[in-house]
Amino acid sequence: MANFSTQWIKVSEPSPHVFHVELARDPVNAFSSEYWREYGRLFETLTKTHASGTDIRAVVISSVFPKIFTAGLDLKSATDLGSSTSDTSQDSARASLAMRKVLVEFQQAINAPERCPFPVIVALHGPVIGLGVDLMSACDVRYAASNASFSIKEVDIGLAPDIGTLAHLPKITGNLSLVRELTYTARYFSAAEAEKLGLVSKVVDGGRDAVVAAALELGKVIASKSPVAVASAKHLITHARDHSVAENLAYTGAWNAAALMTKDISENMRAMKAKDRPRFAALGISSKL
Q1: CATH code, domain with 149
Q2: In whole angstroms, what separates CA 97 from the centre of its chain?
């Protein structure tokens, strides 16, 4: 396996086709500008290597620190970001466009998991603050330890969330009243309330170890399925979120007209008849071909 680990991110393959991405910036996983760029580049690299034949079928994101997932944005980095884009020699329009360029890059980095062709599962525990909510919102599946707590913290700093939370949460949950309350107040809410809100799909009793184990087990189950079917499903679910029912049905018809040609269907039939485990080819095209 190629070494995908970086300065603050550890990458391993604990089971076949399941990659584990561990966030590891001391002491509390606060995101500096270098850190969020590193995070975005990692997922871009995983996507590119997947396309060239690396058989990635699921990714699990977690924190290496037992007591916290992330403290959110590094406040010193946030201050530096503001000062670096406030060139007094430029007029306000140019300064604003410079700031927008950085914010769009930031959004692209944190939302990179949504663009991956494979599912991304996030295992949450301890405090998940500010940017942590942006990060988790861009993942396919969210599991939380029972000790997890969350805060959409940006209003306490003096700004509206701008990296993904407000784009995703109204579509993740049907309780827009609670989304507004949590955003306006920045109050902490529990894993149980996150599950009630629909922000997480499962609460695992315990802390980091328990929720990471559950997320990795889910990754193994997903990795056992047809890569064509799973990648297609991810793509079509995201399309359905952003389009009408009629538009999605028409698009799905066009998509599956090609996807149904997969050999994975006959392989599933063979495995069921033989009471065997199906063996699927990698979804990407090998660079050796």
Answers
A1: 3.90.226.10
A2: 27
- Helix, strand or coil for residue 157? helix
| 155 contacts 184 by C-beta, under 8 angstroms | yes
The verdict on 207 and 234 lying in the same domain is: no
Q: How far is CA 217 from CA 19, 21, 142, 185, in A?
A: 12, 15, 13, 35
Please answer whether residues 167 and 161 qualify as being in contact, where contact means their C-beta atoms are separated by less than 8 angstroms: no
Reported in sequence order, the residue ranges of the chain that DSSP labels E, i.e. its strands, are: 9-15, 18-23, 58-63, 120-124, 127-129, 141-145, 149-151, 189-190, 202-204
- 159 and 264 assigned to the same domain: no
Q: Are 190 and 128 in contact (CB under 8 A)?
A: no
Query: What number of CA atoms fall less than 13 Å from residue 2's CA on the CB side?
Result: 13
Do 146 and 236 belong to one domain?
no
pLDDT of residue 288: 38
Number of structural domains found in the chain: 2
pTM beyond cutoff 0.85: yes
Residues 211 and 248 in one domain: no
CB neighbourhood size of 152 (10 A): 28
pLDDT of residue 99: 87
Q: What is the mean pLDDT of each run of 10 residues along the chain (289 residues)?
A: 88 97 97 96 95 93 98 80 60 87 95 97 98 98 98 93 95 93 97 95 98 98 96 97 97 95 92 92 61
Domain of 188 in residue numbering reads as 9-223
145 φ/ψ angles, rounded to the nearest 5 degrees: -70, 155
What pLDDT, on a 0 to 100 scale, did the predictor assign at position 79? 64
